[in-house]
# Entry
Amino acid sequence: MSDSNDKPNASDPAAPAAPAAPATAMTDDAPVSGAALPGSRASQSLWSSRTAFVLAATGSAVGLGNIWSFPYLAGEHGGGAFVMVYLVCVLLIGLPIMMAEIMLGRAGRGSPVHAMAAMARLHNKQSAWQFVGVMGVITAFIILAFYSVVAGWMLAYAVRMVGGVFEGQLADGVSGIAGRLTDDPERMLAWHTIFMVMTAAVIARGVEHGLERFIRWFMPLLFVLLLGLVIYATTTDGFLKAVNWLLLEPDFSQLTTGSVLAAMGQAFFSLSLGMGAIMMYGAYLPRDTNIPGAAATITVADTLVAILAGLAVFPIVFANGMEPAQGTTLVLQTLPLAFGSMEGGTFIGTLFFALLSIAAWTSAVSLIEPVVAWMVESGRFTRVSATTLASAVIWFLGAMVVLTMAEPDFQFSFEFAGNTESSGLFSVFEVATYKILLPLGGLLIAVFAAWVLSSDAVRKELGLSDNLFFLWRSLAGLLAPLAVLIILLGGLNAF
Ligand code: TRP
# Structure
């Protein structure tokens, strides 16, 4: 590990303790004993450095949300205006809430349920706040059920790429290949199963083993590949149109309450906020880490990847006269077209979908870790039995997702926030998490951090000056909750 200056250890003399202040319980608790949390796993395992945390959290944030759902949602919601709202949400809502989650995790030292409980206890507040953590655990189950199915698509595509099936294909051929996967329940179930086993294997061993190396090497590679794809896209005649449509000429008349809600939900989803994943990783964070700096790094990296994905996908859409609003399979219908026509596309495409699968893997791990950590804390499970049980339940939910997506007898659609949602449980889960549970969880976390806890202790834990703390508190405590509430209610009303 390179920057070992912030290596944690039991006495951690470097911790910026402020001994005399009244509400410093959260700044001078012994870092590895856990705040009132004897037996918490966090006591044995901390990230080896700040870099390790930033890598792991970026590994959580960067995933299918950036490369699969960002382009498909931007496509469905008219492009530029959606992207603008998304960026504003990331900056004004996402970043402050990410700081809050890291802070709560590091001070609370445990699964989100225990971290919230420990912090509430420490500040003499209602222990009912721990239900925010419980809600996060439920949210994790639901997200992972469909996330794993989509990650399975990416695995399937990595394998298809090896065989060169996309070489010389036109848009229709590529769509046909996508359709044959998403209409075939058995195939999807098989890939979903493989992905869940991969995720469980990492979790059973503990996130801090092995994950770091993967992220350190493969994420930069994914980034470079994505950049390469964008450069390739500049050579197509759809590039300028795509840049204008996606970034430069937002058409705000396209914006509906439903699309504002979608953009906000996407911001939470993409940054892994609102259910405690980042809080969980914060629980393994050495004490003397600069929280605002870490949060900003993660946010910028995540946003950059999403924009690059958009710039890789939409030129292909326009150059081939396709519709941006293709829905969930947009990425499967566009990128293979590029790989099929470029020099060395079979190799590059294989690498790309393999890396994307890895990115999804490191995200999935962060979704299930809070669940497993909580089960282990309860004292009733070992890490392996908790992982097995949680993965089995998620696998089953995912199997239901597959069934209601691909078996005609089980399909249904419904309307929400002014959009017609099809593909069965898949959409139910997506709507429930993106558009309700994550924003709600984020709202409660923000209010808890900004208003319920004593502000002096929070300011110290965040390491902010008075002015910056005022800014953070205005955003996390005022603007973010209000915006979430208004958008959420507006969206539910449109229902
Ligand atoms: N952010 C990840 C992505 O973009 C998905 C993810 C991981 C997530 N952990 C999360 C989403 C927690 C919401 C909450 O693919």
Remarks:
- The longest strand covers residues 414-416.
- Confidence is low (pLDDT under 50) at residues 1-44.
- The beta strands are 414-416, 419-421.
- The pocket of tryptophan is lined by residues 60-61, 63-66, 143, 269-270, 272, 275, 277, 363, 366-367, 438 (CB under 6 Å).
